[in-house]
Amino acid sequence: MAVTVVLTVVSTLVFPVSLGQLGILGMLAGLAIAQTEVTRQIERQRRMLSQGPHITVTSVWLLPAALLVPPQLVAALGVIIYVYLAFRSWNGTRPGEAHRVAANATTMILSGFGAALAGHLANGHSVTTVVAGALGYFLVNTALTGLGLYLTDPAKATAESCLGTMDDNLIELATLCVGGLLVMVLSQEPLLSVLVILPLYVLQRSMLIKRLEELATTDQKTQLLNATTWQDGAQREISRAERENGSFGALMIDLDHFKRINDTYGHLAGDDVLKTVAAVVKQETRAHDLVGRFGGEEFVALLPSTSKEDAIVTAERIRQRISELVIPTQTNEGVAVAIENRTASIGVAAFPMDGTSIEEVMAAADAAVYAAKNSGRNKVVGSVTPTRELAAVA
């Protein structure tokens, strides 16, 4: 924040402000306030449901400001927007959150300064200036946001958690594109700038709908499919396999002695184990495989167009990866610990060998899990198909 204040003061001393620039500031502030009012309920719901960094659309206003008015007015606009957001869309700042609002405003203002510098260095055609400014804004914003998220919890920081997902970055780029168009509109036909409010409303509404869909289909602890969504996907895969005379493999993954983790270290440590194992299962399966949390410490995976033998190979990779995990976490008392030497028992079944419905296939995989546990745990066991049982009896 100190850097922002210093840069703002220096800009005030160096760059004069014209009435026209004050008019642009007033128009951008008015548009930002109008858009905040139109999307106030949407913004409240999005912020309430957000689990990671909350993505706003403030770059729509700060990018034009960065390219059309002096830096001190960019800072003024950032303060206006975030103060208004805090008290209108976010119902004020909860205790301990004022610094977060200030940090977010500082990040956006510095991003605006970065856009202004990039636009100035481009010093070319208006299109080049806008593109350079948008790129400068995006890079500074990504770097500052990523650094802040990393410093919040370095032990659990990942590239995705700090730099954002592909969807997060696409949303920010889409917002900057709208901001770039707004630069051109303000330069040519300022009154048409009000038309930007409707696209922003649709964009924020789409983000809310996407989040609601994620909540309805995703297990929030592990970010895998929840049991209901996995079951629906499995039913569709059964129908596809029947039509195409195909097959698929199914894994039932049960963590061994998981209750001991909760009893020894606490449920939060147990949650960290579940999240880490879920990530391993996701990494060791393909993008189109159905991976879900079945309940408790059980995970399921459906592998389309996969034989039982190949599914066993995948299961063995997962079992090996789990046994090698070292999971940093902490106890309920805040003592840092590393949980390791965890194991899993995995049962493998296949369609249509082990059943003609998803219930029959998963029952066969579940029976194989029990066989793995009864024979010493930390094993992959393939189900015994009905045809093999009949052959054995004969």
Tell me about this structure:
The chain is elongated. It has 16 helices and seven strands. Helix 2 packs antiparallel against helix 4 and helix 6 (98-122) runs antiparallel to helix 7. The strands form two sheets. The chain has a five-stranded mixed β-sheet with strand order 2-3-1-6-7, sandwiched between helices. With 394 residues, the chain is of the alpha+beta class. The protein starts with a helix and ends with a helix. Residues 387-394 have low confidence and may be disordered. InterPro entries: Diguanylate_Cyclase (IPR050469), GGDEF_dom (IPR000160), Nucleotide_cyclase (IPR029787), Rev_trsase/Diguanyl_cyclase (IPR043128). Pfam families: GGDEF.
The helix fraction, in percent, is 55-70%
Spatially, the strands of the biggest sheet line up as 2-3-1-6-7
Order of helices and strands: HHHHHHHHHHHEHHEEHEEEHEH
Q: How much strand content do the residues show? A: 5-15%
Helix/strand/pairing category: alpha+beta
Radius of gyration: 27 Å
The total beta strand count reads 7
End-to-end separation: 80 Å
Stretches with pLDDT under 50, minimum 5 residues: 387-394
What is the average of the pLDDT values? 88
Shape: elongated
Number of helices: 16
Instruction: Characterize the biggest β-sheet.
Output: 5 strands, mixed
